[in-house]
Amino acid sequence: MLLLQTGAFRRELADALSSAEQEVLVLSAFVKLDALKWLIETSRTSNLKIVSRWQPSDLAAGASDLECFYLCDEANIPFGISQNLHGKVYIVDSKIFIGSANLTSKGMSLSHYENDEFGTGFEYGQTEKIKVRDYLASVNWLDVKTVELMADFLRSFGGNTDVQSNKWPQEISEKLGSQPLGVWFHDLPMCSPDQLLAQTAAATAIEHDLDCFRSKKGAAENELLKGFMSSQICFWLELQLQEHGELSFGKATSLFHDQILDDPMPYRKNIKEGVANLFDWASRCNTKFEVARPQYRQVIRAV
After folding, report:
1. Per-residue pLDDT reduced to its tens digit, 216-249
2. pLDDT tens per residue across span 156-182
3. Euclidean distance between CA atoms 255 and 265, whole angstroms
4. CA-to-CA distance for 173 and 13, rounded, in angstroms?
5. Residue 101: is it exposed, middle or buried by C-beta count within 10 angstroms (0-12/13-18/19+)?
6. H, E, C per residue of the chain
7. Which terminus of the chain has fewer CB atoms gathered within 10 Å of its CB, N or C?
């Protein structure tokens, strides 16, 4: 199958859904109610599973809808979350569709406004099945009690959508259990703060970082820093500092290299460039991180 743009990707996916006989599995960082309804109504089979990211900031900002769980619960569709999820994968029987499109109205070209998305589809082979099976073992499948706790936590912010948190409180985290720690190369920033602010990097790099920080072109520095502090890579950095106390540039690079999930592995040179950008962003967040240079080494600590 050729590279598909937004509308064509949705049409190919819809054709597959309308003839589905065995299973439909969706892995999408963001899931919105209207798009989920479209997927359920379009699918011929009722054997669906939905996995989203559902960090608190995702739900508070409206990137995903809490109501999606209740819709699935009423239809006996398992709904799970994986807070490391960044990918967008749609599996329909023997076909797998991957690309940049989340299960949202804009991602699926279901509204007047649509994102510029790209994706493709191919046969769902044994290698892909093993990877997906292993990934699903890390998913937390939700129940009503856990979702009600999440809803109470979000209501405690009084409708404030500026919730910069990617961690649930302890009561909820304990119910979710621990997830295997892992990161992807695309979690690393591709631009330094100066490059993103001045728009001097490649267009693809700028678009990548704005997507990771959930920010728009032309955003001010404080908005970009808020986006960075709620990003997956910032969460990963905080966890490493909790465990190790402080990190040199070399140690952070080695830890990222050891935990990365990409296959094939990116070049170490590219990882080092991404970690350098990570340190640069962290150095701007002086309420959260401290970057020092003792004896010509670069070391980062939590404030």
Report:
1. 888 999 999 988 988 879 888 988 998 898 999 9
2. 876 555 566 677 888 898 888 655 556
3. 14
4. 34
5. buried
6. CCCEEHHHHHHHHHHHHHCCCCCEEEEECCECHHHHHHHHHHCCCCCEEEEECCCHHHHHCCCCCCHHHHHHHHCCCCEEECCCCCCEEEEECCEEEEECCCECCCCCCCCCCCCCCEEEEEECCHHHHHHHHHHHCCCEECCHHHHHHHHHHHHCCCCCCCCCCCCCCHHHHHHHCCCCCCECHHHCCCCCHHHHHHCCCCHHHHHHHHHHCCCCCCCCHHHHHHHHHCCHHHHHHHHHHHHHCEEEHHHHHHHHHHHECCCCCCCHHHHHHHHHHHHHHHHHCCCCEEEECHHHCCEEEEC
7. C
d(CA 262, CA 257): 10
Would you state the pLDDT for residue 285? 93
Mean pLDDT along residues 172-194: 81
Paired tokens of 104: 């949202």
